[in-house]
């Protein structure tokens, strides 16, 4: 990551993401229950909670990988509708990093990064490749540009996935358990990349159980259970004085052995 | 067997190649449409495609050719033999290829579609750039297997009057009374068409596999 001499832009009061009473059902199972969430531009949110608590579902609603039944979601002033035009508009603003990387295995690292800018943003190959090389350099993996994903380690693949999302110039980055599929020794390189991105002022929502990361970069930590937001607080409060019993129990389980 | 008889077989071979080419192209194009309809996520379209596949997989090719050529003629639609055969083979091949490719498209991990959507790639680009290149690789053994079957299946076009390789073989055999020799040669000619296709398929599979490793 390049060293910026400038101070990182602070979170502003402009809401970048607004979720109002969002409800999501899987048949008879309520996955999200009246979610209200407002994320300011530049803010970093860490979402945690037990498995099945709806945290992944929540961020997947933001770029409409999951449809939701009730409520409204606005991203950068665009109200997410069911029509493909607003969905496309939102997806252009929102980058996503998945637990299993989901790189395109038949394309090289460079091609993974240039595909969407060339197709969606109509960039020329030269422009797209220049952007891709710059961002691959930022995640310190430029020397692997001509390799295929399967030739890289998990940590390297995840950094490529971050670069690929950044190539679209997103205003928001969603991370869905980005280090959960990694071998322990590779977690740090991915977290370091995310920390650097946070320091540059990116608006981020991260579903993760890396509590060290949460302490270091989060403006707010949100705890979810059974499809609801149970508690949200700045990390120093969240970890030292959680107010709900379920949060305490969860923290007890997750911090054991740390 | 003289040179004339052999040339007659080669003339039959030419028809077999032409019929196969029609089946490949027609079946490939229509098969892609069927596979995309079958995986469209639009329920009525998926049901139509599934019924289409069920109908043409469940009835013999011989009968399909017969119906298209003679059956339609009975209701006043007299088709040229070429047109009839082109339609028959396209229906038959597109049902099989459509089903093979549907399976391959569905075998591509769902995360690939999600990543493509998250990058705001539209449907055409998702299919063309992300899903189909991976699905094609998965489908290669089954696709090549079916195309080899199709080459051999072209012999059924004899029913609508084509003197393709197998029919040419029967004719020559009836003239010179050396069935073993004649059909031996016919078999060798089929083999000469199908074997390279199988080899090509195996080569393509290896090449695509190394590209992603």
TrEMBL record, chain A:
<dbReference type="GO" id="GO:0005524">
    <property type="term" value="F:ATP binding"/>
</dbReference>
<dbReference type="InterPro" id="IPR027417">
    <property type="entry name" value="P-loop_NTPase"/>
</dbReference>
<dbReference type="InterPro" id="IPR050086">
    <property type="entry name" value="MetN_ABC_transporter-like"/>
</dbReference>
<dbReference type="GO" id="GO:0015424">
    <property type="term" value="F:ABC-type amino acid transporter activity"/>
</dbReference>
<keyword id="KW-0547">Nucleotide-binding</keyword>
<keyword id="KW-0813">Transport</keyword>
<dbReference type="Pfam" id="PF00005">
    <property type="entry name" value="ABC_tran"/>
</dbReference>
<dbReference type="InterPro" id="IPR030679">
    <property type="entry name" value="ABC_ATPase_HisP-typ"/>
</dbReference>
<dbReference type="InterPro" id="IPR003593">
    <property type="entry name" value="AAA+_ATPase"/>
</dbReference>
<feature type="coiled-coil region">
    <location>
        <begin position="118"/>
        <end position="145"/>
    </location>
</feature>
<feature type="domain" description="ABC transporter">
    <location>
        <begin position="17"/>
        <end position="251"/>
    </location>
</feature>
<comment type="similarity">
    <text>Belongs to the ABC transporter superfamily.</text>
</comment>
<keyword id="KW-0175">Coiled coil</keyword>
<dbReference type="InterPro" id="IPR017871">
    <property type="entry name" value="ABC_transporter-like_CS"/>
</dbReference>
<keyword id="KW-0067">ATP-binding</keyword>
<dbReference type="GO" id="GO:0016887">
    <property type="term" value="F:ATP hydrolysis activity"/>
</dbReference>
<protein>
    <submittedName>
        <fullName>Amino acid ABC transporter ATP-binding protein (PAAT family)</fullName>
    </submittedName>
</protein>
<dbReference type="InterPro" id="IPR003439">
    <property type="entry name" value="ABC_transporter-like_ATP-bd"/>
</dbReference>
UniProtKB/TrEMBL annotation, chain B:
<dbReference type="Pfam" id="PF00528">
    <property type="entry name" value="BPD_transp_1"/>
</dbReference>
<feature type="transmembrane region" description="Helical">
    <location>
        <begin position="180"/>
        <end position="203"/>
    </location>
</feature>
<dbReference type="InterPro" id="IPR010065">
    <property type="entry name" value="AA_ABC_transptr_permease_3TM"/>
</dbReference>
<keyword id="KW-0812">Transmembrane</keyword>
<feature type="transmembrane region" description="Helical">
    <location>
        <begin position="135"/>
        <end position="160"/>
    </location>
</feature>
<dbReference type="InterPro" id="IPR035906">
    <property type="entry name" value="MetI-like_sf"/>
</dbReference>
<dbReference type="InterPro" id="IPR000515">
    <property type="entry name" value="MetI-like"/>
</dbReference>
<keyword id="KW-0813">Transport</keyword>
<feature type="transmembrane region" description="Helical">
    <location>
        <begin position="15"/>
        <end position="37"/>
    </location>
</feature>
<keyword id="KW-1133">Transmembrane helix</keyword>
<keyword id="KW-1003">Cell membrane</keyword>
<feature type="domain" description="ABC transmembrane type-1">
    <location>
        <begin position="13"/>
        <end position="201"/>
    </location>
</feature>
<protein>
    <submittedName>
        <fullName>Amino acid ABC transporter membrane protein 2 (PAAT family)</fullName>
    </submittedName>
</protein>
<comment type="similarity">
    <text>Belongs to the binding-protein-dependent transport system permease family. HisMQ subfamily.</text>
</comment>
<dbReference type="GO" id="GO:0006865">
    <property type="term" value="P:amino acid transport"/>
</dbReference>
<feature type="transmembrane region" description="Helical">
    <location>
        <begin position="49"/>
        <end position="75"/>
    </location>
</feature>
<dbReference type="GO" id="GO:0022857">
    <property type="term" value="F:transmembrane transporter activity"/>
</dbReference>
<dbReference type="GO" id="GO:0043190">
    <property type="term" value="C:ATP-binding cassette (ABC) transporter complex"/>
</dbReference>
<dbReference type="InterPro" id="IPR043429">
    <property type="entry name" value="ArtM/GltK/GlnP/TcyL/YhdX-like"/>
</dbReference>
<keyword id="KW-0472">Membrane</keyword>
<feature type="transmembrane region" description="Helical">
    <location>
        <begin position="81"/>
        <end position="101"/>
    </location>
</feature>
